[in-house]
């Protein structure tokens, strides 16, 4: 079974630009969650999509948005990039049942904002 | 509010020595507890999880953890570490939603 894939793996953008990251979950998984990892703030939850609907949201500004398609693939968009958005963005897929703990993470997209 | 605290940011240990990575949780409701590992330039991998039942949980790569309700702890242990165990380890919890809340991480360095 193929794992979670994220594209691109590395990205360099300029302040003020926007960026779209993509995540393909494990086949059969309907939930995709996004996390931001930075040295200062650690791992923080951005949002979760389940069956094309945002089911849960972390404490991030509206510049961070996402969507999920009917094949469960998900995209995350960040508009008006700031230097502080430089981070590793991780996507995790799961069946979506609370308490199962079986969230499978992709390798991440490393975003650098200059 | 719920939270997890990883008491050590860095733990150096010699190869083949035992190791314990400490995690304390704070919660007024039932939580599910996890340990994840992150190798350099990779995503996170689930080591083990505690949902209910037996308080001693065995995971992959020879790791185990014990859920201690009275001490609100979920420490990760391995009796003999290898060089390949060098990585960052995260304690995490989950409550009523599917998302995970992570601790700040413990960097384990195994010294040859």
Features:
heterodimer, A: 114 residues, mainly beta, 7-stranded mixed sheet, globular, B: 112 residues, 6-stranded mixed sheet, 12 strands
Concise summary:
With 114 residues, chain A is mostly beta strands. Chain A has strands spanning 5-7, 10-13, 19-24, 31-38, 42-50, 53-57, 64-68, 74-78, 87-94, 104-105, 109-113.
Please give a structural write-up.
The complex is a heterodimer of chains A (114) and B (112). With 114 residues, chain A is an all-beta fold. Chain A contains no helices and eleven strands. Chain A starts with a strand and ends with a strand. The model of chain A has no long low-confidence stretch (mean pLDDT 94). Chain B is mainly β. The chains are: A mainly beta (114), B mainly beta (112). The interface between A and B is medium-sized, with 29 and 23 residues.
Instruction: State which percent range the strand residues of chain B make up.
Output: over 45%
Largest inter-chain interface?
Answer: A-B, 29 and 23 residues
By DSSP (H or I, 4+ residues per run), the number of helices of chain A equals 0
Element-by-element helix/strand order of chain A: EEEEEEEEEEE
Largest sheet of chain A: 7 strands, mixed
Low-pLDDT sequence parts of chain B: none
Sequence of secondary-structure elements of chain B: EEEEEEEEEEEE
Which percent band covers the strand fraction of chain A? over 45%
Helix content of chain A: under 10%
SSE topology:
The complex is a heterodimer of chains A (114) and B (112).
Chain A: E1 5-7, E2 10-13, E3 19-24, E4 31-38, E5 42-50, E6 53-57, E7 64-68, E8 74-78, E9 87-94, E10 104-105, E11 109-113
Parallel strand pairs in A: 2-11
Antiparallel strand pairs in A: 1-3, 3-8, 4-5, 4-9, 5-6, 7-8, 9-10, 9-11
Chain B: E1 3-6, E2 10-14, E3 19-21, E4 23-26, E5 32-38, E6 44-50, E7 56-58, E8 64-68, E9 73-78, E10 87-94, E11 101-102, E12 106-111
Parallel strand pairs in B: 2-12
Antiparallel strand pairs in B: 1-4, 3-9, 5-6, 5-10, 7-8, 8-9, 10-11, 10-12
